[in-house]
Amino acid sequence: MTRTPDGHPDGPAHDALREQLGAHALGQLGDDERAAVDAHLAGCASCRAELAEIAPLAGPLARVDPDAAPSPSVPPGDFAAVLGRLREEDAPVTPLPTHRRRRVPLLGAAAAAAVIGLAGVGVGVAASTAGEPPVEPAAVQALDPGIRADAGTIDHTWGVEVVLTASGFAEGQRYEVTVLDRAGRPVPAGAFRGTGAAEMVCRLNSSVLREQAGGFVVTDADGDEVLRSRFA
Amino acid sequence: MSDAAGTARAPVNLRRIEDLEAAYRDHAGELERFALRQLRDPGAAADVVQEVFVRAWRHAERYDAAVASLRVWLFTIAKNVVVDHVRHHRSRPGTPTAPGDLPPASERDFSDDLVTSWFVEEALTRLGDDQRSAIVETYVRGRPYAEVAAEQGVPVGTLRSRVFYGLKNLRHIMDDMGVPL
């Protein structure tokens, strides 16, 4: 065995001890082997440093599942739902660039409202301001007589945005908004808190594309439907 | 990769919807796979991802690229959301997870292992076959060196050497990924 001037193993002997550091870090050495490596470590700073580098891997490695199926790749998710949640926090959110959509004549919405023909029906005519994508009005039917509401939709590339202008939702109570696709399947579009008599404007985003969206419903904390809207 | 490019260009500001959406594009898929692995519930996993980005936006000022890569930071949030989810559903079945706050960075508990093990698993896939199988067979599966060495047709010393260099490489890969150990 060759040795360094300070008496430690050098060359192949050192390499042999050094290459045991992996098994040492993983607790795989027998008592004698371990004692030999420990004796070497006591006098070899570079091996101590190498051991310190790999030793923290032992814990996490022990929890790796060797038989776990490779995780399936997940299709790109629903960023619109995130945006909806952010709007729910009533935060200033920078609008995303969206393509313009031809404004639908208000008559269409009025006709839709007339077709529903129920008490409490309102017609949402949310005005579109300059620089914003156009808001298409949507028919709204409140099931609670205290609620007055108008609604409109904005056609974004990532899904339909619902603009709900309303008063009469119980102050502080949480309401969930769910967009229904043309087949009636529910897709969460976020939530808001009622503001009582004060008028509120909330913007809720869903991942359902405008042409596939049939309307939306608002449900209260008990899950009861309090408002329904049908898109033209 | 995207982390390095992202931090090299301009500071990431997750309050900006463009930055948040870019982070979503880069990491939502992997985060969802992570949540799915932990919860085994696709609906819950999707909820976790949504909550991660809401919290990331809410606590954007806490993100410091000098301290952690964006990916590691998002995974740390995801871990917290997953843990919240599990705790919540243990105590109140059938109710949605209440959005919680990020715990202080010093709070290290068992759940940190979730994230580290996830990254270790990924780092393992980047190792060469010899080194990976040496570590997986002898340590993760706990098989005797002699048996694995015979199966792979190499001396025990060679297998040990593969474990050692494999661990060194693993550590470098983890460091490159910005995962603290």
Automatic annotation (TrEMBL), chain A:
It comes from the Bacteria. Residues 17-48 form the Putative zinc-finger domain. InterPro entries: Anti_sigma_zinc_sf, Znf_put. Keywords: Membrane, Transcription, Transcription regulation, Transmembrane, Transmembrane helix. The chain crosses the membrane at residues 106-127. The keyword Repeat does not apply. The keyword Chloroplast does not apply. This is Zf-HC2 domain-containing protein.
From TrEMBL, chain B:
Gene3D superfamilies: 1.10.1740.10, Winged helix-like DNA-binding domain superfamily/Winged helix DNA-binding domain. Pfam families: Sigma70_r2, Sigma70_r4. The keyword Ubl conjugation does not apply. Residues 24-91, 123-172 form the RNA polymerase sigma-70 region domain. Keywords: DNA-binding, Sigma factor, Transcription, Transcription regulation. The keyword Cell membrane does not apply. Residues 87-106 are annotated as: Disordered. PANTHER family: RNA POLYMERASE ECF-TYPE SIGMA FACTO, RNA POLYMERASE SIGMA FACTOR HI_1459-RELATED. Belongs to the sigma-70 factor family. ECF subfamily. This is Sigma-70 family RNA polymerase sigma factor. It comes from Actinomycetospora flava.
